[in-house]
């Protein structure tokens, strides 16, 4: 029995606007939300173009590109992002990035820096194409504490080296006039901050000991700087009283990084051990079936520990606190239950934490690590010359599993120093 066209219901127009809005508010994934709005014009009109209800998204891995190709007119501005959970390479046309280095990412924004000694610095949202200009590093920066009339610090020399900014964070939404933005310049161990619209950067006067610097962050009114075995803390409102916290002996020989999560700021401690042939076979996961390697190759196996930072910002001192109470002012406590945490680890201090309960496809107590394979010069999938290939491995935090789940997804362009492969959380806000 044939059904005449007039008997088909046009659900796009029959559904009340309130029902369409209620359905759109149930969508959690940005890609699903884009598909929802693409169904028809009534659905697109009933849903917000910049939804605020979406949880922090599952990250995409941003593949490094060669910023100097713009000088020979070879750069078309197409940037590659690998969506691990859909096993798909996404291409975004971002002409704003041509000739600039993408150094770091945070909350859906990319930090872009000109190759000419930091003459241009700005934040870019790749989805909305919104841009927030930041002060240039060609202007001498002032210091957070000390004589405000003293000559500014000249930071131009550090930009003789590329990709020296390894971290960016900000305190609130960028539309907030009081939003404080922090960048960490690894080359000079410098932590710099500004507000949107400031004419120049302010250098936070915290300096590590003569030890390799690990990472830096801004959280809840405080600047944190990790160096080997030591954590330096400066409160923005009380910069004259810097705090030095000496870490426990078992953390001194670990690689340490700072990680922002729902419950606060954490220290990630990484321990390396050797991987042998007895390791478990690759993940049996439908999301990674096409790219999963059978078994685990020999090499370095990593285990991870999470420690939450407890810092009393309300504790007051008449002057510099005596050394014997430094440990009491800031403390690290190991987190034993990480079942709700999935961590994405990139290169050069790029860590992203996602709440596992928000996503059916995530299991807690694990990490996804982006890394390069052994050197194998050749051409990548787009026919461009490259040195190594990027892969992604799944790791249980306790080290009981370690498998490659996405193998040779893209080639690394020949850049020195190399650009970081970083996890980027897409966001419309």
From TrEMBL:
Transmembrane segments: none annotated. Pfam families: Beta-prop_KIB1-4. It comes from the Eukaryota. Residues 81-379 form the KIB1-4 beta-propeller domain. Residues 275-296 are annotated as: Disordered. Residues 284-296 have a biased composition (Basic and acidic residues). PANTHER family: OS07G0183000 PROTEIN-RELATED (PTHR44259). This is KIB1-4 beta-propeller domain-containing protein. It comes from Rhynchospora tenuis.
